[in-house]
Design brief:
The chain is of the alpha/beta class and about 280 residues long. It is built from 9 helices and 15 strands. A 6-stranded mixed β-sheet has the order 2-3-1-4-11-5, with helices on both faces. A 5-stranded mixed β-sheet has the order 8-7-9-6-10, covered by helices on one side. It starts with a strand and ends in a 6-residue tail after the last strand. It is found in: Cytoplasm.
């Protein structure tokens, strides 16, 4: 069986299980379940702490895993990213009290508090900055107030919690993260079970990003319409019973669907419909 690690809790857990369910895999029904066997697909899922997943995968005990890019890099494990999953996005940045520093170039001799010691230490080393890094598990904003550090490095979403603590974001982002599929460094690409698993997840990503669009238009406007909806290879075009009209079907990016519908209407297309795509293979 293919052995796959899945986050057991946290912000990645729910979306990861939802994506796997959409891909046709059995998932756990209760959060207390640590292992789920899917005999129909010959897969065994292990629900582990997100921070530990890269280590298990790197050991070779598990074939692949789903975790955050930040957690993979922070672990230092011998594992690599093979597919971004388009959820769980976050930005990792430095912050401090106003006037303390403008960026990493000012960190010399200072102490930086973070929950991601591996990422920060490497970032500082890559830039040749001599600063100390202290590891804290969460609530790093208070490190400055308590005098433990002059700088913090943490995940930043809106920045509201930092501002409430009297801190400001400084410098460029250290890292932009999201959920990713990982495997052990040096693993080959010829495992058919892994290939099938990757195709399924890629199919979910495409299905979430596109919608199917159907519409009718006059034959003399077809070239204009096809330019708006080229599809992946080309749209499907069928003649209608009424002479001079055709029906068109094509996949279009979901985020552009409303604009495309407006443009189609302007050139005379009618009966314009969009439907969700639940699964696909390209």
């Amino acid at each position: 069986m293919l052995r796959i690690a899945v986050p057991n809790k946290g912000s990645l857990s729910g979306p990861a299980s939802a994506m796997l369910h959409e891909a046709g895999y059995r998932q756990r029904k209760e959060s207390k379940e640590l292992v789920v066997i899917d005999p129909d697909n010959e897969v065994e899922f292990f629900y582990l702490r997100p921070k530990d997943i890269a280590i298990y995968v790197a050991s070779g005990k598990l074939d692949i895993g789903i975790t955050g890019r930040d957690l993979l890099l922070d672990s230092g494990a011998s594992a690599e990213e093979i597919l971004p999953l388009n959820f769980g996005r976050s930005t990792f940045r430095y912050a401090t009290r106003p006037g303390t520093a403008k960026g990493p170039e000012d960190f010399g001799g200072m102490t930086i508090a973070t929950s991601y010691e591996g990422i920060v230490a490497k970032h500082l080393a890559d830039q040749g900055i001599d600063a100390s890094v202290v590891h804290l598990d969460g609530a790093v904003e208070t490190a400055i107030q308590l005098g433990v550090a002059q700088i913090i490095a943490d995940v930043v979403e809106t920045g509201t919690s930092l501002r409430n603590a009297g801190l400001e974001v400084i410098g460029e982002p250290i890292l932009t993260s999201e959920a990713v599929v990982i495997r052990r460094h040096g693993a080959t690409d010829d495992n058919p079970q892994v290939q099938q698993f990757m195709r399924r997840l890629q199919g979910v990503l495409v299905a979430r990003s596109y919608v199917m669009m159907d519409y009718d238009c006059r034959a003399e406007h077809l070239e204009q319409a096809v330019a708006l909806t080229p599809g992946l290879e080309s749209p499907t075009v069928s003649p209608l019973h009424n002479e001079g009209w055709v029906a068109v079907r094509a996949m279009v990016p979901a985020k552009e669907a409303q604009r495309i519908m407006d443009d189609l209407y302007e050139i005379g297309a009618r009966a314009i419909l969009t439907t969700a795509i639940h699964a696909c293979r390209l």
